[in-house]
Amino acid sequence: MNSTHQTMQALFVFAIPVLFAISLHEVAHGYVARYFGDPTAANEGRLSINPLRHIDPFGTVALPLVLYWLIQLPFGYARPVPVEYDRLRNPKKHMAFVALAGPAANFAMGVAWTIIGIVLAAAGAGERFLFDMVRAGVSVNAVMMVFNLLPIPPLDGSHVLASVLPARLLRLLPTVPPDGGRTLASLLPGAMLAALPKRLLRLVNDVAVIDVLIFAAFILLMRLHVLDSFLFKAMTVAIAAFTRVASPFSFLLS
User: Fold this and answer.
1) How far apart (Å, rounded) are the C-alpha atoms in residues 31 and 250?
2) CA angle 213, 10, 225 (to 5 degrees)
3) For residues 234 and 150, is the Cβ–Cβ distance under 8 A?
4) I need a labelling partner for 86 at 20 to 30 A (CA). Which of 98, 147, 162, 253 fits?
5) Cβ-proximal residues to 88 (8 Å cutoff; 6+ apart), any chain
6) pTM recorded for the entire structure
7) Which residues contact 78 (CB under 8 A, 6 or more apart)?
8) Distance CA 151, CA 100 (A)
């Protein structure tokens, strides 16, 4: 089996787990925000499990391909759902619940994929593709949950940290605009933008600079093996938690 065929097979295995992991992560933020008083995501039609509504050109397409090439684990992020924290009934308190909703959704999906694997094994399924997809679903959601809990703007963990820190300490921390800051298009000369094809122009208009910088730094750290130990230990803990929660299903089917 040549490397191109192996790569295509791996992408098909990861496609469904990655799309749903990043889409339901964002939908969870929107639902919890609406529950606490901010209907912005609902008003913009973003409370949908249709992955097409949440695709981000960089985070959903380019980043997973780069990460698969670097670490053989293609995870990414979707286009963030809009949340106006000032509209929450208690912004400082409720922003933590909104932020934690995404990682919580990844935890639930990790448990769901684990249960699917238990059911397939109990049914005697022999299709390797299905078991590979289950493993992909478990690993992708474990990484997304762990990564998003890091207290680094604009990741979810930074909003959780902001909700518990006193205001005097919060003012000392760097902040990131809710929309991710300036886009790549804002850094390019007008003549270059005018020469770009329409599809590429839409791409540079959609990609936020801060997102690119953060994930470029993350990719560099992974490439230098700086984060390997932490990330894989955290993944192991997350996967063990998925298995523990799903274990009753294994008992029932045994």
Assistant:
1) 31
2) 40
3) no
4) 147
5) 33, 36, 37, 38, 94, 95, 98
6) 0.79
7) 22, 23, 25, 26, 51, 54, 55, 56, 59, 60
8) 12
Contact residues for 44 (Cβ-Cβ < 8 A; gap 6+): 82
Q: Give the amino acid at 241.
A: A
Instruction: From first to last of the 254 residues of the chain, give the pLDDT tens digit.
Output: 556 666 677 778 888 898 889 889 999 999 999 999 999 999 988 888 888 888 877 777 777 777 777 666 666 677 788 888 889 999 889 999 999 999 999 999 999 999 999 999 888 887 888 999 999 999 999 988 998 898 877 788 888 888 887 777 666 555 544 444 555 555 556 666 566 666 665 655 656 666 666 667 776 776 677 777 777 888 899 999 999 999 988 777 76
Distance from C-alpha of 145 to C-alpha of 64, rounded to nearest angstrom:
16
CA-CA distance, 174 to 154, in Å (whole number)? Answer: 10
Strand partners for 78: none
- CA separation for the pair 17, 14 (Å, rounded): 5
